[in-house]
Design goal:
Layout: E1 4-5, E2 8-9, H1 12-21, E3 31-38, H2 45-64, E4 72-79, H3 84-96, E5 101-103, H4 108-121, E6 124-127, H5 134-137, E7 144-146, H6 151-165, E8 170-175, H7 181-195, E9 199-205, H8 214-223, E10 227-231, H9 234-246, E11 252-255, H10 262-268, E12 276-280, H11 287-300, H12 308-325, H13 330-339, E13 342-344, E14 347-349, E15 362-368, E16 371-374
Parallel strand pairs: 3-4, 3-5, 5-6, 6-7, 8-9, 8-10, 10-11, 11-12
Antiparallel strand pairs: 1-2, 12-15, 13-14, 15-16
Length: about 375
């Protein structure tokens, strides 16, 4: 086992000694059932597969060192394709299978749809990516935690960057009408209006999955917008920026962590150049983030994708809580999560009373020469 105590990595020998002296886990089976829920197929699989990879890498190391307090961790993985109507079935399957904690879901809409099922079952859920304010600010889901900051922090980050860094005041705000993109866009609109430094010249939703977004691009052009702030995911964003370039619009494009993904660059191609996107804070100076990235390269011969660091951190903190609590009961896990800091690839974190990680935030990135880099 290789977890953290008081934020420090334990050696294998120390972990074995801890396992021998730790309280027996109050779980029913021979294994600890660890659920992973997210899009593992479809257009948004690039958001979910890195999280599954992160969890596997952490869990494989723990199991190789004896598990937690004598129990191995068993992975139960379900695909929700980032669709709310499928996520409810995914959650039901995991609960029926006896899952004890869940990493996921990935998309906010799918997460919101699934949460009542986990809540009724008293199961801890931790997402590396679901940013909807409703998940923690509403108080409806006391069993939900996340290792990414909420939209309440992301919307201002996007607006401040557009106005203060890029110096652009006329703003078109577009969203995909979804549980993630629409509230994010609404938050950006409210922030612009309260800020008083910019002007929203267009606010409109689009239909996800449409073949052509020429109409909205024409409205952007007619609005005189200097910058577009988009709330949504990469399939729609890639189409919009491609049409904007074809029409030779000079309007800048600023989006969210749903677009800060290499798949957006692959799909949009050269049209991705110069696109800005918010994403989880830059952790390139964190040794644990570098180590986690190296582990992924060694195991899969590729760089990790979106939300990998957050998923790695979520898996670490959940397993640490199980170890310390000697239990998988929700209230026991919450006490550990809210009181003890753990060193992870996203920083030394614990969680507030709402379930939000303390110490995480957003950075702004830009596509340069086919890669996302930190925007200066």
């Amino acid at each position: 086992m290789k977890l953290t105590v008081s934020g420090k990595f334990l050696s294998t020998a120390a972990c074995v000694m801890l396992a021998l002296s730790a309280p027996a886990l109050s779980v029913a089976g021979d294994t600890i059932k660890f659920g992973i829920a997210g899009p593992h197929s479809g257009d948004l699989a690039s958001y979910g597969l890195p999280s599954a990879a992160a969890a596997k890498l952490v869990i494989d190391k723990v199991n190789a060192n004896g598990g937690i307090n004598g129990k191995k961790i068993e992975i139960l993985k379900e695909d929700d394709v980032c669709k709310p109507e499928i996520a409810t079935n995914t959650a039901t399957k995991l609960v029926s299978s006896g899952v004890e904690v869940v990493l996921g879901h990935i998309c906010s809409g799918a997460t919101i749809a699934a949460m009542p099922i986990y809540k009724d079952a008293g199961i801890l859920v931790m997402s590396p990516s679901a940013t909807s304010d409703e998940l923690t600010y509403s108080g409806r889901y006391p069993n939900f935690f996340r290792t990414i900051a909420p939209n309440a922090m992301q919307s201002p980050a996007m607006v401040d960057f557009a106005i203060n860094k890029l110096g652009l005041k006329k703003i078109a705000i577009i969203h995909d009408k979804g549980d993630y993109g629409k509230p994010l866009a609404e938050g950006a609109k409210t922030y612009v209006e309260k800020n008083g430094k910019g002007q929203v010249v267009l606010f409109e939703g689009i239909t996800p999955g449409a073949m052509d977004y020429s109409a909205i691009v024409q409205k952007i052009k007619e609005s005189g917008a200097e910058v577009v702030i988009f709330g949504g995911y990469h399939p729609e964003a890639s189409k919009i920026v491609s049409i904007m370039n074809k029409k030779r619009l000079k309007t800048k494009f600023v989006s969210d962590d749903g677009v800060k993904d290499d798949t957006f660059i692959k799909v949009a191609g050269e049209d991705a150049e110069g696109v800005y996107a918010a994403g989880p804070q830059d952790n390139s100076a964190n040794p644990l983030a570098l180590k986690a990235k190296e582990e992924h390269k060694a195991a899969f011969n590729s760089d990790p994708g979106a939300f990998y660091e957050g998923a790695y951190a979520a898996t670490m903190t959940m397993l640490n809580a199980i170890e310390k609590a000697g239990s998988t009961k929700l209230e026991d896990l919450k006490k550990v999560l809210q009181s003890e800091k753990v060193d992870t690839p996203v920083g030394s974190i614990n969680f507030d009373s709402k379930g939000d990680a303390i110490g995480v935030g957003f950075s702004m990135y830009v596509v340069e020469k086919g890669k996302y880099v930190v925007a200066k």
